[in-house]
Structure formats: structure tokens, C-alpha cells
Amino acid sequence: MPNTPRRSTHASASHGEDGALSFRSIHASPELLRQLRQRFSGAPVPILLVGEEGAGKHYIARRLAAAWLCERPDPEKGACGTCTSCHLMNDGAHFDHVVVEPPEGKGRIPVALVRERVSETLDIFPQISRRRVYTVNAEKADTLSEQGQNALLKPLEEHPEFVRFILLVEDAERLLPTIVSRCAIIRIGRRSEQDIASILRAHGVRDEAAIKAGVRFGEGLPGQALHIAEDESFQALRERVFALFVALPDASVAWCLTKGLEALKSEKSSIRLVLSLLASFVRDLLILRDEVRGIAIINHDYRDQLAAMLALPEKRRSDPGEALRLINQTAQALNFNVNFDHATARLLLCLRARLGGHVVSPDAFLADPLVSK
Ligand SMILES: [Zn+2]
Known about the structure:
Elements: H1 10-14, H2 30-41, E1 47-50, H3 57-69, H4 84-90, E2 97-100, H5 111-117, E3 132-137, H6 146-157, E4 163-169, H7 177-180, E5 184-187, H8 193-202, H9 208-217, H10 222-230, H11 234-247, H12 253-265, H13 271-290, H14 303-310, H15 320-335, H16 340-356, H17 369-372
Parallel strand pairs: 1-4, 1-5, 2-3, 3-4
Helix pairs in contact: 5-6, 8-9, 9-10, 11-13, 12-16, 13-14, 13-15, 15-16
Zinc ion binds next to helix 4.
């Protein structure tokens, strides 16, 4: 993969083209699109869009909002993309689209902002569209405090007929049950490889190698896939993670806790991607070890080095299956905000043991961080 910037026509995919605001620009399962169309034409129930980071919540919310605001919407396609309302939506300057999100540089939406932007404007008639749409970006668990959620309750329940609400969250279970029960939930799941490839092309990614990397390592998440496909540093990251990975079986415990841990700490901002790369290496080890026919390994450029990792000295046996379980467990633990250093140090020590065929220490340090927390 060339180390050159691939991003050039990103903006053109979402601006200016007819149809770019339409439901047809959403590459997702037929079921998700069915739900979206149904909610668009149905009763004015607040919509709760639930999806993990990078799942495409903002992209989909914009298209639902555009459809509700459009002057000539179509039940199948949603927004027309050419009317005044759609132009304003494209410019991010629609008077009847109210976005409630944390102020720049802040992680939380102040309660006062919910009151000022939602409660106090609820009865004002729309200016150019027939509706007014409120999009509330409450993605992270603490973006909207309990107080903030309480301030939203009444508007969600009682509002003029022309008002529509879209709430964006990563985890609906962290919201007050009273909020969830007032909404219709649409869950945005992971996309198929084909959808991811279409999404990348629609966003102007032309380099086939970049598209392949996005599909392979994007884990069905458009945001992650785009990040990979557009980021020239991805290949360098992959090389660094592989260097760490191949060093583990013969590394010392001390090396894991110093050099190895430092390496992971320096990739902290991309840790999800690092774990996904590690998982892809281990999956390839499993395929190579079991000689699974008909399944191609992902990292074919590392095939020889991976095969060499399976050939351990006598009496040492690797356990890639257990290694994969550990990586998934670590990813899950980090989602729950466990101590980063602890979780990654444990991962390194356990990977060293599982991949190098060393005895696993019964040390409490190696206990599951979710259990021992
Ligand atoms: Zn329109």
C-alpha cells in the first residue's frame, strides 16, 4: 500500500450531489433501511439511534433529518437533495434543524443548553420547512447527565406535531429507562464487507489497496473503515503492531512490562485498531495451524513469519484460540474504562504465554480485569 494521502474527494460525496442526502446513499442492511423508512413516514415518535463508535449514527441521522425537513420528500428515497431545505442541510445551516451537542472542547451537554435549545424553542413554528428536527448527540455514557436527560423528558413526551427528535447514543442501557421508553429504537449494526466497500467508494476512496485494508480491518464499522482507508499512517501502524506481535513468544516478562507496554501506551489513541490488528494476526495463526481450507488468511504478506511462529521448540505449545479470547476480553474491558496500563500489561503477558507456550502464571495480576476490578 503506498504511503500517500488518499483522501481527496471526501467532501464531494456528501455535498452538492443529488441523492447524497437520500436514504439510497446509506449502505446498510435492508432491514435497517426498512426501519428507517417506516419511522420516517410513521408517527412522530422520538428516534433513538443506537450504534457503536464509527457505526455511522451521524450519517444516518442527517439523512433522516433531511428527509423530514425536505420540501419534496419521497417515502422510498427520503430527501430530494435539490430543494432549498436540502441545500441548507448540505451547507449545515438549516434554521429548522437544531443540533444539541457538547460545546467545543467539552464532553458534556450542560443542562442549561438542553433548556435553552430544546425546551424553550419547542413551540416556535418552523421557519422554512414544515417541521423542526432536534438532533441530540448524546453518544458517550456521560455526554448527557441524569439532570440533562430529565430536562429532555418532557419535550420528548409532549411537543407540537411538527417537531421530530433524533437521539444518538452508543449504549442505550446507559440512558434513563424513562427516556428509552419514550423512543423508537433503531440499532445500527455492523455492515457487510460489500457495504463497507461501497461506503468507502462513495466517500471518494479510489485506491483498491486502501479499500481492501478498510474492509479487512474496519470490522464492519464505516467510521473505522474510512479512518483506515484514508489514513496513510495505517500501514506503518500495522507494521509496528506486527513487530510487537512476533517478538512476544520469545520475549521476557521484563521486556513485556517495559518495552512492550511502552509500545502499546504510545498507540493508546488507536488501541481499538491495535487490538483488531492483533486479533487478525492470531486468526491467521489459527487458520494456518488448522490448515483450514477455503479460508484465506488476512495478512498474506506476513504468511512466512506467521507460519514460523507456530513452529515452537519442543515442549512448548502455543494456543492461538486462547490468545484470541484474551484480545477480545481486553477490548471489552477497555470499553468499560478499566485501567489501561493494567489491561494492556496483562494482555502482553498472557499473549506471550499463549503464543510462546510458556506456563501461565497464576498471579492475581493476570486475573480478568473486569472481574478483579
Ligand atoms: Zn429536498
